[in-house]
Amino acid sequence: MLDNLKGFHVETTNICTLKCPKCSRTDFIARFPSKWSNKQLDLDSFKQFLDIDLKQKMFILSGNYGDPIYYNNLFELLRWIKLHGANAFIYTNGSYKNKDWWTELGSILDFDDRIVFAIDGTPENFTKYRINADWKSIELGIKTVVNYTTTSWKFIPFQFNENNIDEAKKIADSLGVHSFYVDPSSRWDSLQDPLKPTVIHPLYEQKIVWKPKIDVTLDPKCKSNNVEHYISADGYYMPCCYIGDHRFYYSSEFYKNKEKYHISTTTISQVLESLTEYYSTLESSKFNYCTFSCPKI
To answer: Rounded CA gap, 164 and 54, in Å?
Structure first.
């Protein structure tokens, strides 16, 4: 795995200003409010954990719980990533930052990097899912960073917005966004979910959320892409972000042996060496996070 490692999925923080109904953060806080605490990735530990050549590696700044633009060391992290010849893909809703902030962010990046704005609908209706989002500041952010780096608009179709895709794409084009794509969700608690669009990918009809089937053939993305290596905001390594979701994490071996995988006490080289058997038996092990996230189509 180490020889052809292509990148990392980093949850820099679990802080977010939104309350999206299907978000893991929203679910966790609703179910276990006393267990929630805000986290910020320790940057020094993160740097020492990555004991490999990072040139041309990809750092996906996204997360199960947070939005990377609220990470308190985001600019320092990005400068470090760029200094080491790597690239950053930042996934964000983009709310509540001002022009100076976006300008500084843009000045660190180049067009080999990408900022993906998650906006599910038009300015008039996208907050039906992206609750608490702010179109004015998102628009300001887009208009600022399109001059510095590659941008995308990611649109999740729901029942309330599935007929607004063309309209949203026109808005994206008018703002200079470089690409627009539709990304269907699989997070349906039931096929009668009121958010569920009328047209849905056939695979997702079979994936009732967090209830994975065990009688599936796997096609693990972690092995085929080798860019899934996940680091949580509190500093734990996992082979992919699906393991880091609370619906899977607390029953996984990565929670039961979590101190073994804390980035302050190990390195990526040591971790991957210890996981040789794990990867060799992944298809036959049928872990619940695998059968949910990586069924073979």
So the answer is: 40
Write the DSSP symbol of residue 228: -
Tens-digit pLDDT profile for residues 106-117: 999 999 999 999
| Beta carbons of 175 and 169 less than 8 angstroms apart | no
Which residue bears the tokens 């872990």?
287
Please say whether the beta carbons of 198 and 224 come within 8 A: no
Asked whether 146 and 175 are in contact (CB, 8 A), the reply is yes
pLDDT tens-digit map of 147-198: 999 999 999 999 999 999 999 999 999 999 999 999 988 776 666 788 888 8
Question: Which two three-digit tokens encode residue 44?
Answer: 């020094």
Detail the DSSP E strand segments found in 119-255: 150-155, 179-182, 229-231, 237-238
* Cα gap 164→167, rounded to integer Å: 5
Task: Report in angstroms the alpha-carbon separations of 241 from 10, 26, 42, 166.
Answer: 9, 17, 18, 31
CATH 2.40.30.10 fits 7-293, yes or no: no
Residues in the chain: 297
Sheet containing strand 229-231, edge to edge, reads: 179-182, 150-155, 114-118, 87-92, 58-61, 7-10, 229-231, 237-238
| Count of CA atoms in the C-beta half-sphere (13 A) of 54 | 20
> What's the CA gap between 181 and 183, in Å, rounded?
6
Coil, strand or helix at 102: helix
pTM, two decimal places? 0.93
DSSP 110: -
User: Can you tell me the distance from the alpha carbon of 114 to that of 161, in angstroms, rounded to the nearest whole number?
Assistant: 25
Among left, alpha and beta (phi > 0; psi -120 to 50; other), residue 249 is alpha
